[in-house]
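Colleagues,

For the teaching module next term, I've prepared a clean inverse folding example: a structure given as tokens, and then the sequence designed for it. I'd like students to try predicting residues themselves before seeing the answer, so please don't circulate the second half yet.
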């Protein structure tokens, strides 16, 4: 028995949409954080090849550019910005910016965990991964009352609930969020 072109087309369409249903959304690009070290170089300008440290306020200084604001910018965006600044002094500058050291993308895990502390995450981790990095919970942890403390864009803080027991049993996985730089996981 021969299959009709209609069945064949429906089969292909079903296979394509099934694959898309399981595809996870792409990770957002990494944005530079205070404490990160960038390597900036300008082709044929050896005096403009140097590492720069992103200061606590999210800025860094580079010759002929002054202070550059790196807050919420990717390495590519910073490369374009430096190229524009240098274009006033150098004809067609070829600028390369690379992330030399990630030190600003830190999350903190405190409370009833084996090894509380600050953890540099590269590039991103979720709550369960952060607890694992801290050596797991102690027998005294209140697993149903874990909180993620996050600073909002307005500067205030919010507490996001996390129930370890739910997640470990595969329930309500939406609370196993990807942590952002500066988040504090509190395990009471």
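(Answer key — instructors only)
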């Amino acid at each position: 028995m021969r299959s009709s072109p209609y069945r064949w087309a429906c089969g292909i369409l079903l296979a394509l949409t099934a694959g898309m249903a399981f595809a996870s959304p792409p990770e957002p690009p990494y944005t530079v954080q205070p404490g990160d070290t960038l390597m900036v170089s300008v082709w044929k300008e050896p005096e403009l090849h140097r590492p720069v440290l992103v200061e606590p306020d999210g800025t860094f200084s580079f010759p002929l550019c002054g202070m550059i604001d790196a807050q919420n910018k990717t390495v590519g965006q910073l490369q374009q910005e430096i190229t524009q600044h240098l274009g006033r002094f150098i004809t067609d500058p070829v600028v390369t910016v690379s992330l030399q050291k990630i030190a600003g993308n830190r999350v903190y895990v405190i409370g009833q965990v084996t090894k509380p502390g600050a953890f540099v995450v590269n590039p991103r981790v979720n709550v369960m991964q952060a607890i694992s990095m801290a050596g797991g919970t102690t027998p005294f942890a209140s697993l149903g009352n874990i909180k993620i403390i996050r600073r909002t864009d307005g500067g205030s803080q919010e507490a996001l609930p996390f129930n370890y027991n739910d997640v470990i049993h595969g329930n309500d996985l939406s609370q196993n969020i990807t942590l952002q730089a500066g988040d504090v996981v509190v395990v009471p």
